Amino acid sequence: MTTLRLGDLRPVYVIGVGLHRFQRASDTSFVELGVTAVRRALADAGLEWTGVQVAYTAATRLGMAVSRPMLRHLGATGIPMTQVENASASGSSAFRLACRDVAAGFADVALAVGVDKVGKVARAEHLTGLPRPDAGLVIPPVHYGLLAEEYLRTRGGGPEDLARVAVKNHGNGARNPFAQRQKARTLEEVLEDRPIAGPLTRLQCCPVGEGAAAALVVSEDAIQGFGLDAGRAVRVLSSVQRSEELYGAKSFDAELTRTTTAQAVAEAGIAPADLDVVELHDAFTIEELQYVEAMGLCGDGEGPGRLADGEFAIGGRVAVSPSGGLLAMGHPVGPTGVGQIAEVTAQLRGEAGTRQQPDARLGLAHLVGVGAVCAVHVLAAPGR
């Protein structure tokens, strides 16, 4: 059986990105959050709303039918609109659908927008009516606290290995005007903060707030037809999404990341060592250590040492979560994956300001969602 890859179809580019700051809960309506991000993406691209042919809206806590009440404020143009929910990977999934529409020729201009407010969320796995082995006690902080304890025990590490992830990412977030947390932290501050689960402290866990992010995906025909700036068009080399398999006693988070990333970099025709920028799912510090190893950015067990040596810092061998990651940029859920695309796009254009990774040519965006699902995208700088 033969399946198509994104690279088998026509080229796809990110031409515009926009954000509303990720922030704590406020009185700002989701409409204002989302429309702000979309208008900024349109301005960034040099496009009018009438040029957009299809829209995918990622949201997890706003109820049904989010797209129309929000996007109608930009104009009623009759385009197809679809709401996407895939847990933490919702924004990544919306972006993937936009890319596939353009690659297949169903549209020349597609919008992926993520928006969310703080609110109740119901996870279907809790509503099956079937007994659960963990009795519902293993909530995310406990799950990752247990993973952190296992990681440190099997590799002979200490709590400071985890805390250095937070120090790096809070420092990056302090440079990001769209981040929810914009304060640099010391190793001592991270380690001495309020404990949450196992070795994880509060500053090692992501904040879940509100915000919005938008990305406009276009074809070469759209770039030429609308007279857009090809020098700012970031190519999407691959888009891969997988779901959980059976991994035995291994961490499904890491193994799912391993297989999905391997497929994404292979389809992009590159190696992990070629990446200059990586935005990954660091909802808890242990995840960054697990994922840089699973992605092949370093060998198993080498993550803490490479981190301590500065290899994953801005200016290092590969900048990991230069936006601040979920730990500092924040994790409003629906917008998170599109926000990663916005950061990688800025980096590959050389427009990331004080967060800029020098000479960034290749970037990767990665998110894991409960279920479990994983989405990975590989992007290339203009002209590459």
Structural class: alpha/beta
Instruction: Examine the coordinates and then state which fold CATH places here, giving the name of the CATH topology of the largest domain.
Output: Peroxisomal Thiolase, Chain A, domain 1
Distance between the termini: 32 Å
Query: Order of strands in the sheet with the most strands?
Result: 3-2-4-7-1-8-12-11-9-10
- Largest sheet, described in full? 10 strands, mixed
CATH superfamily of the largest domain, by name, is Thiolase/Chalcone synthase
Q: Quote the average pLDDT.
A: 95
Number of strands: 12
Number of helices: 12
Low-confidence stretches: none
The level of helicity is 25-40%
| Rg of Cα set | 20 Å
Oligomer: single chain
What is the correct CATH architecture of the largest domain? 3-Layer(aba) Sandwich
Protein name: Thiolase family protein
Domain Thiolase C-terminal: 254-372
Keywords: Acyltransferase, Transferase
GO molecular function, one term: acyltransferase activity
Task: Please describe what this structure looks like.
This protein is an alpha/beta fold and 384 residues long. It has 2 domains: 6-118 and 208-234, Thiolase/Chalcone synthase (Peroxisomal Thiolase, Chain A, domain 1, 3-Layer(aba) Sandwich), CATH 3.40.47.10; 134-177 and 237-379, Peroxisomal Thiolase, Chain A, domain 1, CATH 3.40.47. 34% of the residues lie in helices and 19% in strands. It has 12 helices and 12 strands. The protein has helices at 30-45, 67-71, 90-104, 140-155, 159-173, 187-192, 220-225, 252-268, 285-294, 303-308, 325-328, 336-349, and strands spanning 13-23, 54-58, 81-84, 109-116, 195-197, 200-201, 210-218, 234-243, 277-279, 319-320, 362-369, 373-380. The chain has a 10-stranded mixed sheet, with helices on both faces. This is Thiolase family protein. It comes from Actinomadura rugatobispora. Keywords: Acyltransferase, Transferase. Residues 25-217 form the Thiolase N-terminal domain. One of its GO terms (molecular function) is acyltransferase activity.
